[in-house]
Amino acid sequence: MDIITSHINADFDSLASMVAAKKLYPKAVIVFPGSQERKLRDFIEVFHPVEIKRVKDIELSKVRKLIIVDTKQPGRIGRFSEVLLNKNLKIHIYDHHPFVTDDIRGELEKIEDVGATATIFTELLKNKKLHPTPMESTILALGIYEETGCLLFPTTTERDLLAVSYLLKKGANLNIVSNFLKIGLNIEELDLLNELVKSLKESVIRGVRIAMAKASREHYIGDAAHLAHRIMDMEDIDAVILLLHMEGKILMVARSRVPECDVAGLLREFGGGGHPTAASATIKEASIEVVSDKVLHLLPEYVKPGKVAADIMTSPVITIPWDSSIKEAEDTMTRYGVNVLPVVQDEKYLGLISREIVEKALFHGFKKNRCKDFSTTEALIVDTHAPIRDVEAMMVEQNQRFMPVVQDEIIVGAITRTDLLRVLYEEFLRRRQLDKEDMPAKPAAGRNLSTWLRDRYPQEVFDILRESAETADEMGYSAYLVGGSVRDLLLGQKNLDIDIVIEGDGILFAKGLSKKLKKKVRSHQRFGTAKIITDGLRVDIATARTEYYESPGALPTVETSSIKKDLYRRDFTINTLAIKLNQKDFGLLLDFFGGQRDIREKTIRVLHNLSFIEDPTRAFRAIRFSERFGFKPSKHTENLIKSTIKMDLFEKLSGSRLYEEFFLAFSETHPVRTLKRLSDYGLLKVIHQHLVFDDKLEATLSSMYETIAWYNLLYLGEKADLGILYLMALFSSLAETEKSDALDRLSTPPQIKEIILKNYIDATDISKTLPLHDPADIYHLLMHRKIESILFAMAITNDTRIKKEISHFLIALKNITPLLKGADLKKLDIQPGPVYSRILGQLLDEKLRGRLKTRNDEIEFVKEQYRD
Fold it and tell me: CA–CA separation, 84 vs 73, rounded Å?
């Protein structure tokens, strides 16, 4: 006999899974192991959806196969746990709860991380084309909707939504679903809720607010889970545990809305289970007070430490010595873009000085006075272990915008109002389960992307990130994945440029990681950076840094800082995203500056108003990123670019940085569109004042683009240098001396400049000489020219005859060689000497002209031409 069963106190997910399992195992019998929730009993009584046997009617000794759905716990399948000892028993398990110790194991296990077991079965039926009837679809939809809180619980996945969509297409009746999932309370439930609320006792464990409520009833009340949700919403608490004494049993229902509190682990201590956010258990013959005491005793084991000051503080902090002048304080604030400075003496924290105080002191003529004389010494401070809730209360109640984090009198970090607001916002998102992104599965701030890292990166890269997490934890550092790889992860694009930033010693971290990976590391002490090369992958590691510019366009001065400051020094918001790698928060997305918003809105936005003044190269980069991703600079960003041009700051910009930007634009974007955009902003004039993007230049660049595309499709093996070709096309309208000047403005390497200027001469010669009509003459004209000069000549000519002859050379003539060699000529009794070169040259020309097809043709030609 084959049996399909589920857990005691069965719900709609249980029924739905059993009904679906019946389609997969048509000979099996559906049996509830025990009680059912009241709503489920009402549904079965009204619709009689499927034949269900009673457990007392089953002869357990005859059970040969046990199909268990929506549970794996032996204590939750009633009498069927007795057959588990049968060695010949075959067990098939379908569940959406993760495996834990002592779970039943089977020869077939279908365990998926989705919101409901009904979702697993819906996918199986769809894939096997065992399409459900409208009633079966309705039951499956009931299971999914109930288990996921109408798709609102945090355990809901994209697969649950797709499953519901499929079921609706198959006729699921949402009116029936709505009628049986209404959460209205009857008088009995209202009375129970009132008793639970009155008995509520709250505990704060490691910053997590947990409430426990108790009630007793003479008769059984099946569905109490929704009461737990109501209490959490009413009391605004993080987790709730309900103890209901009914008919000699205690029903435990637990719900948690924070990841720190694992209610499934807690209720496993009582023989129950579920998800970390939702679990239940049934206890027989126990006192509710004894159970309550045991819960309070065990709770701390299942509450991980919540966030503390050390988790969100900015570190290291920019400080100022106590005897520095007020003028020096102003300079430091301006240089680093901060408004508050901790005042220190021999590294010990003394107090705070704000920009407001500095400005007033300067106004009154105290620029030479010491900072200590004007510092605030009564500001509140916290240590690294202070719970975030306490920090929040102190900052709000005292209206303190900057909270020093002090350990043993040394300032080790600082918390700003922005840091605090970010934590509160992330908690708000988690609690309300908001996801306002217009793309599916788009992460919100604070979302964990560990599954994205695992699924979208090659295994080798994911393993490196995991090793990085372990290394960082061992060293006491914080490690972050940053840069283009994070941005492109959200864009769904491949990018294996792995950049890791360390809050700590980046070089020391790199050495530790390289030992784990058994790879070599190259470090640059001056910049605090290192590289690890591993099987074609390069991992760049850097110490978290901040920077300031001594003058517009100058290279930045870099100093050690925090991840937030490190990200702030980047060019655009879309490049400021980071993913934490430490094991505790592995995969946590950090978005301090609205990068996700701008990715969603397809916007290029600078971080601050002086961005282009400090580094004018960013203006070129803004256009490059716009074209590469199909984004658009924000209006404010456009205005800042125009202002920078008016200030004539590009003259101070080094040519080598411009050269690099142009070459990146040529390789990453459609060059014609990019160069036109640069011209629209007036940025081509930065290279040369006579460089004008007119119709003629646009036609040349477009022809160059088409020529390169055609050449690449030939797959001839010899690669053309895109940068050289597009620079040649871009400067083609300039006079000879102007071409040289433009190349100098870009600080073009001397060797490259020489090649470009020579290519211009060669291309002109090619254009003037062709068409030649004779294949041999074409070959000798082009054979020893650089491929760039040949392609440029092809691009700039409008003569189709010239294009055809160049094409014929590249496709056919270039690789033609005689079959006969010197040794073959010697066998023909021709004495070695200069004559060999003449003979082979003639053979080549005749082959080029198509007159010699085979080896015998060549032999006959030689015999005929060189008879004694």
Answer: 11
Work out the angle between the directed axes of helices 775-782 and 834-848 (0-180°, nearest 10). 120
Q: Tokens in use for 295?
A: 């819960």
DSSP-based three-state secondary structure for 264? helix
Burial class (CB in 10 A: 0-12, 13-18, 19+), 27: exposed
- Residue 183, φ and ψ in degrees, nearest 5: -105, 20
Residue 136: both structure tokens together: 């079966």
CB 629 within 8 A of CB 605: no
Q: What is the pLDDT of residue 438?
A: 33
**What is d(CA 141, CA 132) in angstroms, rounded to the nearest whole number?**
11
Query: Is 276:264 a contact under the CB 8 Å cutoff?
Result: yes
Distance CA 493, CA 555 (A): 31
Whether 604 contacts 633, CB under 8 Å: yes
Q: Which H, E and C letters describe 427-439, residue by residue?
A: HHHHHHCCCCCCC
CA distance to 207, 552, 606, 803, per residue, from 613 (Å):
45, 5, 12, 46
pLDDT average, residue stretch 704-731: 94
Q: What's the pTM?
A: 0.59
Torsion of Cα atoms, 478 then 484 then 486 then 491, to 10°: 170
Distance of alpha carbon 334 from alpha carbon 205, whole angstroms: 42
Q: How many CB atoms lie within 10 A of CB 458?
A: 11
Look at residue 185 in the predicted model and tell me its pLDDT.
65
DSSP β-bridge partners for residue 216: 245
161 strand-pairing partners: none
Q: Write down the residue that tokens 């569905």 correspond to.
A: 223
Residue 775, preceding peptide bond in cis (omega within 30° of 0)? no
The label of the residue with tokens 């991840």 reads 563
Do β-strands 632-633 and 603-604 pair in parallel, antiparallel, or remain unpaired?
A: parallel
Nearest to 147 by CA among 111, 119, 109, 183: 119
Residue type, 349: Y
**What is the Cα–Cα distance from 609 to 648, expressed in whole angstroms?**
16
CB 8, CB 70: distance < 8 Å: no
- Distance from C-alpha of 76 to C-alpha of 272, rounded to nearest angstrom: 7
User: Whose CA is closest to 487, among 576, 571, 600, 569?
Assistant: 576
What is the Cα–Cα distance from 77 to 114, expressed in whole angstroms?
Answer: 22
Q: In this structure, are residues 579 and 589 in contact, taking their beta carbons and an 8 Å threshold?
A: yes
Q: What is the pLDDT of residues 502-527, one digit of tens each?
A: 999 999 999 999 999 999 999 888 77
Give the DSSP H/E element, type plus range, for residue 242. strand 239-246
State the DSSP code for 156: -
* Distance separating alpha carbons of residues 387 and 207, to the nearest angstrom: 6
The region, left, alpha or beta by phi > 0 then psi within -120 to 50, assigned to residue 528 is left
pLDDT band at 17 (very low <50, low <70, confident <90, very high): very high
pLDDT in tens, 115-128: 999 999 999 999 99
595-615 in b/e form (b: 16+ CB < 10 A) is bbebbeeebbbbbeeebbbbb
Helix 787-796 / helix 722-730 crossing angle, nearest 10 deg: 40
Task: Report the pLDDT value the prediction gives residue 448, as an integer from 0 to 100.
Answer: 80
Owner of token pair 């499934």: 264
Q: HSE on the CB side for 507, CA within 13 Å?
A: 9
Q: What does the block give as tokens for 623?
A: 């256009």
Q: What is the DSSP letter of 719?
A: P
Task: For residues 433 and 225, give the distance between their C-alpha atoms in angstroms, rounded to a whole number.
Answer: 19
Q: Which of 766, 735, 741 is nearest to 753 (CA)?
A: 741
Please give the angle made by the CA atoms of 666, 668 and 669, to the nearest 5 degrees: 75
Helices (H), ranges, 715-849: 722-730, 736-745, 750-769, 775-782, 787-796, 800-811, 822-827, 834-848
Residue 553's pLDDT is what? 54
